[in-house]
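We now fix the convention by which a protein and its fold are recorded. Think of the row as the fold of the chain written in a discrete alphabet. Here is one such record, which you should read through line by line.
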Amino acid sequence: QVQLVESGGGLVQAGGSLRLSCAASGRTFSSYAMGWFRQAPGKEREFVAGISTSGGRIYYADSVKGRFTISRDNAKNTVNLQMNSLKPGDTAVYYCNARRNWSNYWGQGTQVTVSS
């Protein structure tokens, strides 16, 4: 069982930056691939960024490439999402995800609002 707690969301003007953090419980964090997803009002949840267990493989949605950076610290059981050059279209609830084999865990989400 993995419990995920996101933090760092908030209100920011277009062009600004935010850093989201996800803290995971448990001693097996390093065995989980981690990711960030987001869900805007009236839309389906979508993939934003993913990182492999060791951090050696990283993936981004086309919409955030060059603006967002995902990272993880296996010693601290955390995964972060640095978001720069934010746009109003980035407004959504952002969710942290942990995945290993058939196990899939979600955090409660953190709201990011980007004003124009």
Summary: The two ends are 40 Å apart (CA to CA). The chain has a mean pLDDT of 97. The chain is about 0% helix and 55% strand. The CA atoms of residues 28 and 42 lie 35 Å apart.
